[in-house]
Amino acid sequence: MKSQLGVVGLGIMGTGLSRNLGRNGYALSLFNRHLEGVEERVALRAIDTYEELKSARGFDDLTSFVESLDTPRIIILMVNAGAATGEMISSLVPLMSKGDVLMDGGNAHYLDTVERENILRHMGIHYLGCGISGGVEGALNGPSIMPGGSLEGYEIVAPILKSIAALDLNGEPCCAYIGPGGAGHFAKMVHNGIEYAEMQLLSEVYSVLRWAVGLTPDHIAEVFKGWTNTEAASYLVDITLNILREKEDDQWVIDSILDSAGNKGTGAWAVQAAASFGVPAMMITAALHARYLSGQRHIRIHLDDITRKQNKKDASLGTTDLFNAYQVSRLINYHEGFAIIRAASAQYGWEINLSQLSAVWTNGCIIRSAMMNQFTSLWATWNDELILHPYIKGIIVSGWSSLRRINHVASSETLFTPCLVAASQYISGASLRYPSANLIQAQRDYFGFHGFKKIGDRSDTVYHFPWKKD
Ligand code: 6PG
Known about the structure:
single chain, alpha/beta, Rossmann fold, N-(1-d-carboxylethyl)-l-norvaline Dehydrogenase, domain 2, 7-stranded mixed β-sheet, two-stranded antiparallel ribbon, 19 helices
C-alpha cells in the first residue's frame, strides 16, 4: 500500500498540517531530515504522539519516503523559506517523475517560486507555490490556502487542499487557484504586508487609549470587545483583546513583554514589491519601519531621556473617533495591498481574481475580518482601484476627520502612531488636486534638466525653464 501524499518538514506548521490531513483520512508519508543529536526520528515521534497520525508512515531517508508514495506523487514542503527550501527541492527532484506534484507550503519569495516553477515545468513536474495562512491553529484546524503555479498540478491536488482548508461564510473552502507562476506566494506575501499594518494599527489604537486617554488594558479590551459586533470585527481584534486581559502575578502580561517587534521578512518583501511596481504603500511601509524602530531600543531609551515629555491625559477623546479612524485606516491598508496585487497581476499576466482571493481571506487566515466579507462581493463587480469604490468613499467621508483628530492628539502627546498618520497622509496625498510635486519637478529640471509638463497642456511636450541666471 502506497501513501496518497507526503509531507516534508515536521516543524510546528508541518506537523499541524499533517495532523489536519490525517484527520481527514489521507494515507500519509512523513519525512523529516536526520540531524545527529538535533533532529532524530522526528517523523516517527510525531506518529507516536498524535492520534491523527497513527496510520502515517515516518521516514528520515528521502529515497524511501519518495518510494512510499503512490503516483503521480504529491508532496508538500513545509520547510523554512530560502536556502532550506531550495536544497530540499534539489534533493527531491531527482527522485521524482514526470507528472508528479510538488507544493511549497512555506513563505517563499515569489520570485524564487517563479524560477522554481519554470525549471520544474520543463522537467514535467507540476510545481505549486502555496501560500498558507492561519498560524499553528490554522494549519491544524483549517488554514486559508493560496495555491499558485501549475494549473494542471492544482487540479490534481485541489480536492485535498479544499478538504483541509477553512470554510467561508457560504461553506466553501478558503482555497482557490490564485494564478500561474509565483501568484500564490505573491498573494501570501501581500497578505502578510496587510497583516503587519493591521497589527500596527491595533497597537497604535491601544497606545492612544492607554497613554492619551488613560485606560487600563482591561478597559481597552472592553473597547475592542465592543467592536467585535461591528464592521471592525476581525481575528486580530479578537486576539488583541484576549492578550490585553491576561494577568500574571497581578501584573498585565502585556507590560512584561519587551517592546521590540520581530519579523521574518515577508513584510519587507511586500514593501520591496510595492516599490518595484511603483505602487504607494505608505501604511505597510510605516508598519514595517515601526518594527525596525522598535528594534533600536538603545536609541529609543537614549532619546527618551533627552525628549522627556509630560503626557497629560485627554479623557475626552471619544472611542467613536478612534473607531472611525481605525476603520478608515484599515481601508487604506487594504487598498494598498490590493493595489500591489493588481499591479503584479497586470505585469505578470496572472489574472488574479480579487473576489476569489478575498473569499480565501475571509476565514482561516490572520487577516480574516468582517470587512473582508464585503470585499468578496465588492470585487465581483469592480475592476478599478479599491479607493475609488463608492463604499470606500462613504467611509473616507465619515472617518477622515476622526483620523485627523486622533493624529492631532497623538502627536501633541508625542505618541508613536505612524500607521494612523500614514493613512491620513495617504488620503491627503491621494486627494490633492495640486500637490507639491510641481516643486519636485522644478527641482529636477533645475539640477538635471529632466523637464516638466505644464498644467492644461495635454500634448507630450516636455518643458524646461532657464533656472540659472548667470
Ligand atoms: C500567517 C502568518 C505567518 C507569518 C508569521 C511570521 O499568515 O499565518 O502571516 O505566515 O509568517 O506570522 O511573520 P513575522 O515574523 O514576519 O511577523
